[in-house]
Input
Amino acid sequence: MNIRNFSIIAHIDHGKSTLADRLLEFTGTIEKRKMREQVLDTMDLERERGITIKAQAIRMEYQGYVLNLIDTPGHVDFSYEVSRSLAACEGALLLIDASQGVEAQTLANAHLALQNHLTIIPVINKIDLPNADPDMVLNELKNIFGIEKEEVVLASAKEGIGIAEILKAIIDRVPPPKGSENAPLKALIFDSHYDVYRGVIAYIRIVDGILKTGFKIKMMGTQAEYEALEIGTLKLGLMPKDILSAGEVGYLISGVKNVRECRVGDTLTESKNPAAQALPGYKPIKPMVFCGFYPVNPGDFEHLKDALEKLQLNDAALTFEPETSVALGFGFRCGFLGLLHLEIVQERLEREYGLELVATAPNVIYRIIKKNKTEILIDNPASFPNPAEIESIEEPYLKLTVFVPSEFVGKIMELADDKRGDFKGMEYLDPVRAMLTYEIPLSEIISEFHDLMKSASRGYASMDYEQIGYKSSDLIKLDILLNQEIVDALSVILHREKAYYRGKLLVEKLKEVLPRHQFEIPIQAAIGSKVVARETKPALRKNVLQKCYGGDITRKRKLLEKQKAGKKRMKRIGRVDVPQEAFLAVLRLGQ
Amino acid sequence: MTSLYIHIPFCKKKCNYCDFVSYAGKEELIDDYVEALVEEIKTPSVLTLFGLLPLVKGEKKRGGLKTIYFGGGTPTLLSSQHFEKILCSIPYALSSEITIEANPGTADKAKLKELRQLGINRLSIGAQTFNDNHLKTLGRIHNSKQIHQAVEDARSAGFDNINLDLIFTLPGQTLKEWENDLKIAIDLNPNHLSTYNLMIESGTPFFDQKISLSEELDAEMYEFTIDFLKGKGYKHYEISNFAKPGCECQHNLNYWKNGNYLGVGAGAHSHINGKRWANPDSVEAYINTPTSFLPLSKGENAESALADEARGGQRETLFLGLRLLAGLPVEQFAGFEPEVAELLQDGLLTRENNHYQLSERGLFLANLVFEKFV
Output
């Protein structure tokens, strides 16, 4: 069979999208004049952030072969999607920047590819740049992966160098698909997206058998049954076709209304002749990071709900349920794959739906074992039980890998230490670069870890992580009290040792952003009834328009009206008026 | 209508804190401006307001103005001939209070004498501070010595009703320095003192320099002012104003009582029976069309537009009237009972003589009181 299914794996910014563009152009899949940069990144956000969020596939025809490129998401938040995309391929281009060398995600993605038994074609990209050092990269590939110089293609996607060689290597080295057309249908759903007019479009790889238009089909994970209303291959648009056979990559429209019913990783089979076993590796998606979204304008609650529902149509990982905060009013507790996912959703809500949001501090799911031996999972500091009832608390941990030039090793170790990382090992990849391994709480990574790591290494360090389960931690809930009343939206769960410092920071910031009131306001951070930090906002001493003459009374009145209106926009907690900016400032602290 | 305000928007130099309608370097327009003022005053609608024509048909002509106030800018940049021209166009009673604001750098003894002879009987001297360094920071054109001179000249010119304007919380000013300013001021024995904290208004050099002032020091200075002036026999009758018995400024009292007044000249504001309006700020525009800027809708005349006394506006009456320490009669607060109850509970208002008035604490936090009534 003249089919080759492959993907491109790379560390962020190593040129994946540009290479994809060049392949499409070189194979004549897209005319050069129709080319815009990063064709496969369809969302504005993807193009702006330079990352791929959704997987995509495209079919190229070249020298009698069908080449299916399955693009993978480029961020560790989406590693499950990456692994499913890779499972749909037989080969992968391992793309490495000639000046940056192997990075943390290169390694993680290469491991994923090897786990899926993919043939790897190493490509060193950006060899045209003045600071390119292909020899250094060749050495690393040899040391880390045992890859020989002869296997490596040197390329510059930007300049179009090495594109023919890459295509040749794909045809020569990536094995053709192995499946049998006679076996019962087995197709892997490696991604899906929601289209307003057509419902869910599933991206599938036929592993065994054939799929025809009109087939009754079944999702083996959810057991839901549908009809194949339209199938076809993927070029720049959908190309309907009556049959897809083993080895092919294409799309399926079956009247599914929500991406949740069409789960990535699930296996599709024919209802009347089902496959005996589903394909391996399917996992239901579970959100890892949670935060509350509250509309700044309380009247926007319904609008926010609509927007979240619309986003969810196309985002199986996003969860939300209504919650109420004394301080912030009505909002939603939302679940995400990771911090990037959270940021993307927030940005889309603000940008595409015109919502102004207050987002509470992100947190993870904690597992709490109570003294009465019951176990509860909490994703919201508000549900934290009375400390007296708690036997122990566990939090999710990650295995963290950091690649870093040796001169910054000390700084990174300091940072990891500060973030409660347990040092697990250090290996030198070459004389000037080290790989550090840690076990570290997810909660520490979702705040500002990535930025701190970048600034501690002048941007050179790269990181990757995978979940390794729950571990016991000495965690507490830190409350913020304004004038003796707890502000629920500002409560956080954190490690006992950090409570003092964090509490101090929070109360200092609040003192700065709170307006003065008629009375003095104690601002406290407390664990249970124990106050760990305190500041006092002094009372308003003087607020009077001293000069008020005939002249311009209208202007004075407007000043007073403005002052009055400003107060109305604030959230009143007890007797304290808290401006939205105070929540924003405090919640941004340490993010 | 009992009060007339006449705005003189000319200055030798603009002060660093000033955001009033006033211009430096336009003195060549003064003659034309005075002509324009006279023209505005003589428009029939204005004459109606002065009571020379009946306000409502059948109503009897009413008496002349009770107060006239020349404010600026720097009114003393005008010559006595200019004042003569303006005053000759106005019907006023001999017992009227006629005030002129004076900048110590622009008023010599001879001119003051002429002004006094024209019937101007109250002089408000813009002293601001007696500290020469601070005067410089403010961008004033005079020094401390000239203030002393101005007061002396005013007295010898026959002025026996003198006010001094003072400003506190100047950039870098200490409490001691302010105490000192007040002591010097008292030694000059003025009949009236107006004291303001410095406000940093947008569009002024101080604003651009991002000067910030201490709220604590501001409160301390204000507290000292109140105690000190009371001890010296001055009655604290309005948030920022102190007077010897019987020397309260009648013109300003009318503002705070939400009374009617007409403002003439560029940028001047008027209030008649609840209607408020202002003339354009531009001197040139004003000189071109000085005739009445009364806000009349099509077909409406001054009589019907302004005859409706009910438009006075309870809210404005309350937030202006509470500036006076005597406060306002309880019955005027009808409809605001919940607000009043809260303010009494917070200790911002007190009740005495069947009046509600700002408490001592309320004087410092008056905006929290006023905002309940806007």
